[in-house]
Amino acid sequence: MTTLRRNTWKSESSDYEEHITALDFIQSEPDLNLYICNNGSILLLLYVDNMLLTYPTQAAKTAEEIKTDLSTTYKITNLGTARQFLRIEIY
């Protein structure tokens, strides 16, 4: 089962791509707003000022570390488990 997190992404600087790739994420070639980490088990999707982080229960510790690291550089708000992203319902 996949746990979904949705965060508000408020960046004071434009170096988020460098920061995300420094966290071992690889940018997807077909979708440049999608970043993949941990052999594909953690996905980070960016859209304007929103960020969706998805991960399985086994990767929860790594995902928490990623969120902590991002919050030290950027102003983010954890909105909890995602129920909707870009007006698309998530089950």
Verbal overview:
- The protein is α+β, with helices and mostly antiparallel strands.
- The protein has a single domain (2-78), classed as 2-Layer Sandwich (Alpha-Beta Plaits).
- 23% of the residues lie in helices and 43% in strands.
- It is built from two helices and eight strands, in the order βαββββαβββ.
- It has helices spanning 16-22, 60-73, and strands at 2-10, 26-27, 34-37, 42-47, 50-56, 75-81, 84-85, 88-89.
- The strands form two sheets. The chain has a six-stranded antiparallel beta sheet, covered by helices on one side.
- The termini are close together.
CATH architecture: 2-Layer Sandwich
Query: What does the largest sheet look like?
Result: 6 strands, antiparallel
- The average pLDDT is 80
Low-confidence spans: pLDDT under 50, at least 5 residues? 1-13
**Total number of helices:** 2
Radius of gyration: 12 Å
- The general outline is globular
The fraction of residues assigned to DSSP E strands is: 35-45%
Q: What's the order of the H and E elements? A: EHEEEEHEEE
**Total beta-strand segments:** 8
Q: At the third CATH level, what is the topology name?
A: Alpha-Beta Plaits
* Strand neighbour order, sheet with most strands: 2-3-4-5-1-6
In terms of structural class, how would the helical and strand content be classed?
Answer: alpha+beta
What is the share of helical residues?
10-25%
